[in-house]
Specification:
Blueprint: E1 14-15, E2 20-23, H1 24-38, E3 43-48, H2 49-54, H3 56-61, E4 69-74, H4 83-95, E5 103-108, H5 110-122, E6 128-133, H6 136-142, E7 150-152, E8 155-159, E9 168-170, H7 180-197, H8 199-206, H9 214-231, H10 246-258, H11 267-285, H12 290-303, H13 311-319, E10 333-339, E11 342-348, H14 351-362
Parallel strand pairs: 2-9, 3-4, 3-5, 5-6
Antiparallel strand pairs: 1-2, 7-8, 10-11
Length: about 375
């Protein structure tokens, strides 16, 4: 796919429960207004090594005013999204005299915004934070909805809170800093939005040969996620549909994160596997048609390399399912599809069918 980006478009801000998602030029305008009015004692900017090198300077150039900034850098990658990194950031905040009137601006991908949001939500029982997602994945997914947190070892997002930022700033020019593989990772979450909510959007995305209309596509995905989150902020019911592909996908991602014999999978690559697996289970349990199942499989396999699983891999992955956040009363709860655009939540799946889904993926 061609990842050449056209000039940013002006788009209306999307209002969520207690904050707004602002885009491109409007994002910087609203940020400057906010900083001018908020009277923060100190402004901290959390980055990782990549966003420090490629995103921090252009971001800072758009901030107008004389403020007391401190930049905190963490190591990049999911492997560093843990409580040890949080402790380091908390300690730096303390050493630099952060108080409850400080703000933390998280400039980075999902690791930075998830971890930074959690750090801010817990430091001195909570300081303000602003998310500036710089990857496609974090723009369409990680920075919307107030989920913050870190991994526990290789287990995804086991520790965290739901807490809303002051604002989210989506500036699509940051995407020019990304490798194609990172863009593809984010594209998987966009495809998911079509599968759970909008068949026509799914058809539009799978037919793309380029992402030159990326602003409108990001806007559509953020709108879909925001509509779901507004109905169910704390994921008691309908918000669970956003986890389609993630029950098995997160287990695959966690296994590859801790297995020395496998290369790491990016989040979107693992979720792509999960969406095929859970598509097959949907075909067997909840009425997804054979044609739609084959459509899902063909779309993901045309966009993502096929992953090889040994019987031992599959056994280990399935053991990780017991740590999924949607579980309750000892049951593993899946989000499945009745058809594309119509999901069903809290479906129980047998061990035999889980194993069978990997055989379908393999063949």
């Amino acid at each position: 796919m061609d990842y050449t980006l056209k000039k940013n478009k002006v788009m209306t801000s999307i209002t969520s429960s207690s904050y707004a998602v602002h885009f491109n030029e409007t994002a910087y305008l609203r940020l400057n207004e906010h900083l001018s009015n908020a009277n923060y004692s100190k402004i901290f900017i959390l980055v990782d090594e990549n966003t420090h090198n490629f995103c921090l300077a252009p971001f800072m150039a758009e901030i107008h005013g004389d403020y007391d900034f401190e930049v905190i850098e963490i190591e990049p990658g999911e492997i560093n999204k843990n409580i040890e990194t949080c402790t380091q950031v908390w300690e730096v905040l303390s050493e630099l005299d952060a108080d409850r009137k400080s703000v933390l601006i998280n400039v980075g991908g999902g690791v930075v915004t998830d971890l930074g949001g959690f750090v801010a939500s817990t430091f001195k029982r909570g300081i303000n934070f602003i998310n500036v997602p710089t990857t496609l994945l974090s723009m369409v997914d990680a920075s919307v909805g107030g989920k913050t947190g870190v991994d526990l070892g290789a287990l995804k997002n086991q520790v965290g809170v739901i807490n809303q930022p002051e604002m989210v700033l989506v500036v699509s020019s940051f995407l020019q800093t990304l490798e194609e593989r990172q863009m593809q990772s984010g594209f998987a979450e966009m495809l998911k939005h079509g599968l759970i909510k909008d068949h026509s959007y799914w058809n539009e995305l799978k037919a793309l040969s380029s992402l030159d209309a990326i602003d409108q596509l990001i806007y559509h995905s953020v709108t879909i996620k925001n509509e779901v989150v507004l109905q169910d902020p704390t994921e008691q019911n309908i918000r669970k549909i956003l986890n389609y592909g993630h029950t098995l996908g997160h287990a695959v991602e966690s296994y590859f994160l801790e297995s020395p014999k496998h290369e790491l999978l990016l989040h979107g690559e693992a979720i792509a596997v999960g969406m095929i697996l859970e598509g097959y289970i949907s075909y067997k349990l909840t009425g997804l048609s054979k044609d739609e199942l084959e459509d899902i499989k063909a779309t993901f396999l045309s966009n993502y390399p096929k992953v090889s699983f040994s019987p031992e891999d599959i056994e280990a992955i399935l053991k990780l399912l017991k740590f999924d956040k949607k579980n309750s009363h000892g049951n593993i709860n899946f989000v499945l599809l009745n058809k594309i655009g119509k999901p069903e939540i809290d479906v129980k799946v047998s061990q035999e069918l889980l194993v069978e889904s990997f055989a379908y993926y393999k063949n």
